[in-house]
Amino acid sequence: DSGVTQTPKHLITATGQRVTLRCSPRSGDLSVYWYQQSLDQGLQFLIQYYNGEERAKGNILERFSAQQFPDLHSELNLSSLELGDSALYFCASSPRPGDNEQYFGPGTRLTVT
Amino acid sequence: LAKTTQPISMDSYEGQEVNITCSHNNIATNDYITWYQQFPSQGPRFIIQGYKTKVTNEVASLFIPADRKSSTLSLPRVSLSDTAVYYCLVGGFTGGGNKLTFGTGTQLKVEL
Q: What CA dihedral angle connects A36, A37, A42 and A48, to 10 degrees?
């Protein structure tokens, strides 16, 4: 158990819909990262927040957005969903903004039908 | 971020030592080398990290030669439960944020 929690565990929705994935970092960690893992793309970095502010951006689509709240939990919002958005979405956390040592949550499996 | 190259797959037997080598020819001066393990449908798990020479923890050792253009993850006495994908990552600590880039990894299969 990494100490990072993600909800929900599974999510099934239809194309065009909007969903919100939630992540709670390990106690004391200020940095949160979001990753997408699909079969054909591997594990892709999406975005990072540190203490409420965006720190780094990866291959995140404009239809996706994220934020980190004052209590340090983070939400990833996915809108206008397409079949290709079906994937595992992982959240990770670390104490500092530049850590290569990150602790990953169990993931949310999103299925778009 | 430095590009890394590692074998796509490796096979081993229980009780053997496994060495997975990663090539990173364009590693930068401030880059660290980090290894992760991932089981199917689970998040990657941090194994070990190093900058030069040798680092050892309770689960693995990491060997880095003087030129730092490659590194070797050593898993002593593997068991069936070590069957997983292993990722080698190279990157520096940046106050502005860090984008971990995961390659295709090495699928390790351990058999009886």
A: 30
Q: How large a percentage of chain A has pLDDT more than 90?
A: 81
Chain B closest CA to A15's CA: distance in Å? 23
| Cβ-nearest to A100 among B38, B49, B97 | B49
The pLDDT tens digits of the residues spanning B99-110 come to 667 778 999 999
**pLDDT 10s digits, B73-108:** 999 999 999 999 999 988 765 544 456 677 789 999
Phi-psi map region of A72: left, alpha, beta (phi>0 left; psi -120 to 50 alpha): left
Q: Would you call A106 an interface residue with chain B, using a CB distance cutoff of 8 Å?
A: yes
Instruction: Give the dihedral sign, CA B19/B22/B25/B30.
Output: negative
